[in-house]
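#struct-pred

JT: dropping the chains for the assembly here, can someone run the whole complex?
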Amino acid sequence: MERELVVDARGIGKDYGRGSARFSALKDVTLQIAKGECVAIVGKSGSGKSTLMHVLALLDAPDSGTLAIDGVDTKKLSTGQLNTLRNRTFGFVFQQFFLTPGTSVLDNVTLPLEIAGLSPRLRREKGMAVLEQLELADKARSNANDLSGGQKQRVVIARALVGNPGVIFADEPTGNLDSATGAVVEETLFALNRDHGITLIIVTHDDELAARCDRQIFLRDGAIVSDSATTGVAA
Amino acid sequence: MRTTDLVAKAARNTFRSKTRTTLTVLALFVGAFTLTLTTAVGAGVTDYVTKQVDSLGADDVFIVTRTAAATTDGPTKYDPETSSASTGATAPGLPGASGSDPLTAGDLDELAAFEGIVSVDPIQTAAVDFVQYDGGDRFELTINPTSSVTKSDLVAGAQLDQSSTNRQLMLPSDFVEPLGFADAEAAVGSTVTLGITDVLGAQSTVEATIVGVSQQSLLSSGAGANQALVSELVDVQSAGIDTGDPRYAIAVARFDTSLTTDEVAALKADIVGAGYGAQTIQDQLGVIKTVIDGIIGVLNAFAVVALLAAAFGIVNTLLMSVQERTREIGLMKAMGMRSRTVFALFSLEATFIGFLGSAIGAGVAILLGTALSGALSAGPLAALPGLNILLFEPMSILGIVLLIMVIAFLAGTLPASRAARKNPIESLRYE
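RK: done, full complex below.
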């Protein structure tokens, strides 16, 4: 089945440091992710999985190789265009919530829309709609600090979702949550993938979480050691 | 990001750390407060002096003395042909016009011959012993020698008529009650008696009509007298004795009012070139203004030093803020905020702090200053009617607020560029 590629990375290399301290965080990583896939990038800390996510999410530029997002070669884009692409196409869920303290839940959720330059009225409408969807509408006016961990992570998901992105990157989304609330958050993310066709890229060292994804990519020392899509074996 | 959102966000961010913002605003407040007050004092005093000099009127007048205003090459050598004896008589009440070398009738003719000079009148001084009304108490009175060329700040009545043959007197307002008049209006038109002692020591009296009552003034003290009154007083004073060629410390040369500023300057240069000192009223005012500007300049310098210190406060506050909000900056950049927007956000925050400090500082300065100015005018400065020691001008206050906002913006550029340069990944990893 030929599907539209959201991410098309070929021969990605990324080095850190200089001289003798130089090391390769990513070595010749080639990876295609199709629209609507649910992919887990799995590896121990230091395996390069976070670096790979940063490169794929256009937060970091690769030193070698090419990366196309939605068929567009990212090398040909200006910084401004990259910013716009990130704003329009990607949603982010981080392990730490990164909610702005002393600011309402709604304002936190609509931050990507504010950056995109939408009118306050439109921001409010979209923000309330997505809070509605995640059953957080009653918390819209609350201070983001006053929520529980699970609620905070759902606010973060709402924020990732509000711009109607094609891809959501989740970096250890349940790392800071107990297993019960973690399960709720996981379910929310998978539902988005299942029901709304949003491409989900989860970076994790948690094998259980990875196993719930359609596809697992294992990384070790900056290189892909196995990819369930090419080997056909689910981990 | 929309500009309105950006400004609103910057304003909101300043209130997130209330203690820190308050302290920084306080530092700016001190600078803005001081600068507003010193500027107001400068404006108030300048305004007062300008009004005083305007009340002197006479835009078409040179005050002429025999010698050039300032000599830098030491005492002048005596030459029997050109020099004339110095009387040492000085003209009270007119700064810069103390001639040590009197003007003679020949000098007056020479001055009148300059093209553009309409008339030359010597200023004669008359020393009056007392003034008395209707047999009441006698009071000492000084006749202002320049009253023949100047206009008075009137409380009641009219200006002196120099061409009138009636003997006219301009009475200072503080003489009204002691002399026994009900008020200034009542004094106008009354006839008073002036006592004068002649050179032989005999005292006689001269009658004069009050045509106007003048506000007391810094620059023109004493009573005013028209030409007819002065001539009469001088005649009585000399007791009919011929004292030789008349000599005058100062003369007043009126020039053609149609002359341009440049032509007036050229004419002045010509007169000075002929060995006279010539100053317009504006020249004399200029000296006073320079002194005031100097004093205000020093005061303003102190305020600016305070502002510079406050600027470092802003740098410090925002650097801390950038450090604290590293992850927030990283998140916003990850979500596609451009570096220049991040820069704008933080420099706007600095500018907003500047606005808060300067607006509050200027506002409090205006409130306190207005109260203080009123109290001073009623109390210690009551002797100088018309003086508003603090004059708040909307444009200069706007200027101060803008200046402080610019200073705050400049102070904010360092932390703002640091925020703008932050790498989103590093920032998100920052614990």
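JT: nice. Chain A touches chain B at residues 54, 57, 59-60, 79-80, 83-88, 92, 94, 96, 98, 100-102, 111-112, 114-117, 119-120 (CB under 8 Å). The first strand of chain A starts at residue 5 and ends at 16.
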